Amino acid sequence: MRGAGSRGAGTGMAPIIGALLMVGALLLGGSACAPDGAADLDVNAAEADEVTWPSTVSADGIEGGVPAHLPIPAARTAPQAVSRGLPVRSSEPVEAPLGFGRSATADEIAEWDIDVRPDGTGLPPGSGTAEEGVPIYAAQCASCHGAQGEGTPAGWPLIGRNPGDVFDFNESLAQEERRVIGNYWPHATTIYDYIRRSMPMDRPGHLSDDDVYALTAWILWRTLLIEPDEVMDAESLPGVVMPSADRFVPDDRPR
Amino acid sequence: MKKVTRRGLLAGAAAAVAGGAAWLWSGLRFPWTSEDPPPPTSAAPVPATGPTARTVPEDPTKVLGPPPSELGSRSPFEAPRRETWGISSGTPLKDLQGTITPSDLHFERHHGGVAMVDPDRYALQIHGMVDRPMIFSLDELKRFPSVSRICFVECSGNFRRNIPEESPVHHFTGLTAQSEWTGVRLSTLLREVGVQPDARWFLAEGGDSSLFARSIPIEKARDDAIVAWAQNGEAIRPENGYPVRLILPGWEGSTNIKWLRRLKFADEPFMTRWETARYTVVFDDGLARKFMFVLDARSVITSPSYPDRVQPGWIELQGLAWSGRGRITRAEVSFDEGASWNEADLQDPVLPKAHTRFRYLWRWDGSETTVLSRATDETGYVQPTIRQLIDARGVGSGPYHMNPITGWRIRPGGQVVFRTEAWA
């Protein structure tokens, strides 16, 4: 009916009459029960067929439209077609695809497919070291996160793991500002994912994949987890074990 | 909130009438149509200026009212506002009635500001462990069988510890709001793309500047998730995710991804920053709870509340109760610090995973009194006290998923203040 309505708009009375006929025929259970008078109404059958019923619907009922040897007005064939089609109640699930939308191309998927998982799935080619990250951090990150990652009012602290730090998970995590990468990020890959996804906040999406590797390495080095010249890439980054890796469990809150 | 004074409005109207702007229905322009600036006047201008403000005549029965307009506006005497806190804004629950939050007062919590999305360029991409990776335009999404549902959306960080007495309700509960959402069931889209049997999770990603993303178990997609494109009868507001957002009834607000642009199916969760370093809760066993999706039952008394001043005598207590696990079955109020509870009336219809308004008519004798509220949902879960929450999770727990019993202290003079309770 949706196709019928949209196609019929603005083409005069014929589609309206055709639609009324269809409704009537539907109520009466199809052409077999249609009163004789229905066929005698002054409706141009061909026009009604063309205007009110997309060919796909007619074809669904009778291949190729109305056969020539059956001089039935199109308006009386249409309900048959509907009854053989998809469920008419929109609340009923449809098993087959409805056919809306279009296929996503490989390029379209690749352009948006940026997520990185803990096992390294999704990490792009490229690499970086903390040494390479020093100037990038100074230029891109320090204004909000502080020269050494200590944080400023504009940006969370990144670094909290210094020699002598006590990594008491309970103590240090009562305050959100003490949750830093060294004590509260269970996966090294999340650092890469987050920087590439969201940073810098005022200019996201502009860092190269190598830059993101270098910045990830810089944070891991400052967190005392890797050496300054250690190369971070799709192979090595997932192997960095974070101090809080074993501190996260699924929701089991008391009820 | 700035109060609009009646005196100012009357003065403005009088000046406009005195200005001799005679007008009729036919042809002549109403002197203060919504397109016009406020009428010239030496008196105080209408505070709620802007394109929709209208002046008010001294006697509306003696003046022909304005003609119909293309877009309605609030009375200039009413000026409800969200309160903003940088990265979020709170719904003024105290100013609202019923259970539907006006769309322009729905709370906000953004991670990369409000994304402005051109609906003609909008695309939802669904890929990963599916048979048919697909892209849907906005119009194509709207062709699918649609569904409407009333439910709340609440930020899981909708409480803070050690709230001071001078706190309006939205300072500790303002990050919840309720709308009627319309869209296509995610389960319908699952069939359309042919999700593979091994898919267990999906990543829902927004098209904002943070590309905010959360991993969601596929069971929620099959249950009641909606890919929504309408809110309260019209297009979703930009700050609520225009043109398309995910709605996961009863689950923490951050999973209801706004400006939804990508769904990727996989066999494992993705472990984004917002399901590890944020939106996780450390209990006192030293372990952080992740994927803490469901919002437990909660209630709050919205009236009376700070900064109200009440009179002795009959007072109708009103509030909201809700649960992410189903329907509210009971809302109760206590006047003796929780020693005894009195069942309040629930306003029909009581919908699952929805704000439910409760009322309790009460006679205040003028003496200092505390009033508390408590919700129970259909799973039997009873809203806990702060003490119970601390005992269960630890004093260091938080800041997410805190739903304690709260209330108000009514001082002998009638001043209503938040009933403080130390988080210790």
Would you kindly provide a written description of the structure presented here, covering whatever features stand out?
The complex is a heterodimer of chains A (255) and B (424). With 255 residues, chain A is mainly alpha-helical. Chain A has two domains: 82 residues, no CATH class; 134 residues, Cytochrome c-like domain (Cytochrome Bc1 Complex, Chain D, domain 2). Chain A is 42% helix and 4% strand. A two-stranded antiparallel ribbon of chain A has the order 2-3. In chain B, 11% of the residues lie in helices and 28% in strands. A five-stranded mixed sheet of chain B has the order 5-4-13-8-9. Chain B is mainly β and 424 residues long. In chain B, strand 4 and strand 5 form a beta hairpin. The N terminus of chain B is likely disordered. Chain B has three domains: 79 residues, no CATH class; 195 residues, Sulfite Oxidase, Chain A, domain 2; 121 residues, Immunoglobulin-like (Sandwich), CATH 2.60.40. At the A-B interface, strand 1, helix 7, helix 10, helix 12 and strand 4 of A face strand 4, strand 5, helix 2, helix 4 and strand 13 of B.
Instruction: State the helicity of chain A in percent bands.
Output: 40-55%
- How many helices of chain A? 13
Number of domains of chain A: 2
Biggest pleated sheet of chain A: 2 strands, antiparallel
Q: What oligomeric state best describes the polypeptide chains here?
A: heterodimer
Number of domains of chain B: 3
Low-confidence regions of chain A = 1-84, 163-174
**Residue windows where pLDDT falls under 50 for at least 5 positions of chain B:** 1-53
Major sheet of chain B, described briefly? 5 strands, mixed
Rg result of chain B: 24 Å
CATH class category name of the largest domain in chain A = Mainly Alpha
Our estimate of the beta-strand percent of chain B is 25-35%
The H-and-E topology of chain A, N to C, reads as HHHHHHEHEHHHHHHEE
Sheet with the most strands: spatial strand order of chain B:
5-4-13-8-9
What is the tally of helical segments of chain B? 6
Approximate shape of chain A: globular
